[in-house]
Amino acid sequence: MSELVSAGPPLIEIQGVSKRFVKRLDIAGKIARRLGAGLEEETVHAVDGVDLSIDEGDVVGLVGESGCGKSTLGRMVAGIMPPSDGAVLYKGRDIASLSGDDKLEATFAVQMIFQDPFSSLNPRMRVEDIVGEAPVVHGLVPRKGMSDYVDEILTKVGLDPALKRRYPHQFSGGQRQRIGIARALAVKPKFLVCDEAIAALDVSIQAQIINLFMDLREEFDLTYLFISHDLSVVEHISERVVIMYLGRVVETAQAEALFAAPNHPYAQALLSEVPRLDQRKRDFQPIKGEIPSPLDPPPGCHFHPRCPQSFGPCSSARPVLKSIGPDRISACHLND
Amino acid sequence: MSVAEDTLEKTSSQRDGSAVPTLVVENLKTHFFTRAGAVKAVDDVSFSVKAGEILGLAGESGSGKSITGFSVLGLIDPPGRIVSGAIRFNGEDLVTASPERLQDLRGNRIAMIFQDPMMTLNPVLRVDTQMIEAIQAHRKMDRKAARQRAYDALEMVGIPSPGERLNAYPHQLSGGMRQRVAIAIAFLNEPDLIIADEPTTALDVTIQAQILHEAQALCRRTGTAMIWITHDLAVVAGLADRIAVMYAGRIVETGQTDEVIDHPLHPYSVGLLGSVPSANKRGDRLNQIPGMTPSLIGLPSGCAFKARCPRADDHCDATPEVIEEMPGREIRCHHPHRQEAGA
Ligand SMILES: Nc1ncnc2c1ncn2[C@@H]1O[C@H](COP(=O)(O)OP(=O)(O)OP(=O)(O)O)[C@@H](O)[C@H]1O
Ligand SMILES: Nc1ncnc2c1ncn2[C@@H]1O[C@H](COP(=O)(O)OP(=O)(O)OP(=O)(O)O)[C@@H](O)[C@H]1O
Ligand code: SF4
Ligand code: SF4
Ligand SMILES: [Mg+2]
Ligand SMILES: [Mg+2]
After folding, report:
1. How far apart are alpha carbons A29 and B277 in whole angstroms?
2. Strands (E), A37-171
3. Separation in Å, CA of B201 to nearest CA in chain A
């Protein structure tokens, strides 16, 4: 998208964003503490000092293993969860400082699509209202025009408008995901945050939805943050890929360059372990060890207990993200 | 009919070699008789697995993979029933076997690994207690020896400090660790056959790779036959010796892994493989199969893939029989060699 790089600010920029969750003690824990046990409420550093900027028209993939903070980061980018530290900027302005029409614009501009379309769709609302309500309430379309507008959007996502008076449970998983996408599109967003949006779907249906995302991008000039643990999907549709490990970004690069030659040892391990059709009867050479708990992340480089190349500084000093090539950053002491 | 006889013949002709199949399933039909009608979850399925061999059973949600596995284990409950067919395990027919006999085989000669390890693990018992019970249920062994065997099994599946894990309760272990304990339990009595039902689907790639590695190594070492059920063709491509692809209750294509992945013949296999992102050029539209999987209730006669198939014609209104292309390579389609338009 280099031809789109404009003088203006990026569409979305996050600066030094962190999110901490306090894990409250349960009753037994509270009693134990009162009796003098040294129990503290534990803090999860779900996202730990992340910077990221996304230009208009970009497709950014966000990958990493379970619990590394992808959804939390996605929610903050989408403006539906405030960060503990740092700022989220929409077109250069901190969304926390916006009000009135500006705030509404930013709210509509960024929409989120979730993994489980079922739990995010109100079971007692008809598809028509699920898709049409927000644009009517906020005056994007007149109430009289709602029915036609809903038909138009449903057609765009490949659903038969004749089904619009049905309820979500009357649809298959793939169709429900289309309803979720239609609801998001109905408010004319610029940016979609897709959080595992195809993970629950069958392979043949996944392909349909991936194609739909790519078509919609062309048609509406959409920007995407595509969160997935499925690296082959991310490789396929992203232009830029961000890899997280335990709350931190470890490498960001153009997709092609990254998949050709990952720099960070975790990125290397992760990419080599993705099952691929063209690898037969392979000898799996897995990286050892469990993913550490984010309640008690290892000091220094979070990856050091599992890293085959760990050396001197890794267990004590946090490696910072450094530029290691055009549009490419990595956080590893080997680059020092 | 002739298909079943062929399979039988092969079985006996191979008997002098070491390649007697551990499991032979012939024309298996398992249906659920629901109020809405009969769900033909497994409908005329035949396959076999040899000792030390890994068979990948692949297909999309609802295609009948799990029910095939449950049928072999004798775990079909009403309203479901094995309607017809044979399941021969080391030559013994399991369809007609008594519940006691099946009970004795399960967890002993045949083991299952589920997607959710808590289907195997008891949350209120320590790991060592459950493992010792699993051994002592099937053989006479004193507690000390059984505990040692449990220790060895945990070590074998790559669990660090097995001694500590033996004393843990399941909830004190991570998801990947629990699944490895479940795998260790499956291998405890050195079964002849393991049926693994999507055991890595819920796990992260690095943990999945560890488990695939352990499972593969164990099968090679112990000569256990394994059926690995999955919806992820890329997983079985790297793991299985042979692949069977299921669609709507039937196996539509079987063959050596390389054959099926590189030269799929059934239009559904072609479509499924084409829809995998890594099989496509980055950024290109994926090949998609139009439409969706049919309901298994009141499936119209003829080929179940007809409505989505680019090769369909009038012949396809008749249910296709299994064609044996060459030994071990079977297709259920009227037009296995017709090219798709534009392909
Ligand atoms: N509302 C919350 N309260 C407490 N902890 C939370 C909350 N949301 C997330 N966490 C914790 O923050 C960490 C990051 O969670 P997050 O859901 O962002 O991970 P993820 O990368 O999306 O994982 P997955 O791939 O499993 O979806 C996890 O340890 C999680 O348990
Ligand atoms: N108890 C039951 N009563 C009625 N139908 C059932 C029952 N159990 C399974 N089925 C049906 O049998 C069919 C095959 O189910 P099965 O669980 O074998 O699918 P699967 O291939 O394992 O799918 P998945 O990938 O989703 O696990 C499905 O259509 C399912 O709805
Ligand atoms: S900083 Fe050290 S431990 Fe971390 S990835 Fe680099 S080499 Fe490995
Ligand atoms: S039998 Fe006909 S409809 Fe079925 S897969 Fe073959 S060509 Fe397609
Ligand atoms: Mg998540
Ligand atoms: Mg299943």
Report:
1. 47
2. 42-54, 59-63, 85-90, 93-94, 110-113
3. 11
- Least Cα distance to A116 among A68, A160, A168, A170 occurs for A168
State pTM to two decimals.
0.87
> Three-state SS for A201?
coil
Q: Within 13 Å of residue B219, how many CA atoms lie on the same side as its CB?
A: 24
Per-residue pLDDT of chain A (336 residues; tens, 9 = 90+): 444 445 678 999 999 999 999 877 666 666 766 766 666 677 888 999 999 999 999 999 999 988 899 999 999 999 889 999 999 999 999 988 888 888 888 889 999 998 776 677 888 999 999 999 999 998 889 999 999 999 999 988 888 898 899 998 888 777 888 899 999 999 999 999 999 888 878 888 889 889 999 998 999 999 999 999 888 899 999 999 999 999 999 999 999 999 999 999 999 999 988 888 887 766 666 677 777 777 888 999 999 999 999 999 999 999 999 999 999 999 999 999
User: pLDDT, tens digit, for every residue of B267-304?
Assistant: 999 999 999 888 788 888 898 898 878 888 878 889 99
Half-sphere exposure at residue A218, Cβ-oriented, CA atoms within 13 angstroms: 10
Residue of B nearest to A238 (CA): B283
Give residues (CB < 6 A) around ligand 4.
B 267, 303, 305-306, 309, 311-312, 316, 320, 333-335
In the numeric block, which tokens belong to residue B29? 């039909």
Structural domains in chain B?
Answer: 10-109+191-332 (3.40.50.300), 119-188 (no CATH)
Q: Which of B269, B305, B321, when mutated, tests ligand 4's pocket best, judged by the most ligand atoms within 8 Å of its CB?
A: B305
Most distant CA pair in chain B, distance: 67
Rounded to two decimals, the ipTM of the complex is 0.80
Domains of chain A from N-terminus onward: 12-124+167-285 (3.40.50.300)
Measured by CA distance, the residue closest to atom 1 of ligand 3 is A332
What gap in Å lies between CA A264 and CA B315, rounded to an integer?
55
Structure tokens at B11: 């079985």
CA–CA distance, B339 with B92 (Å, rounded to integer):
42
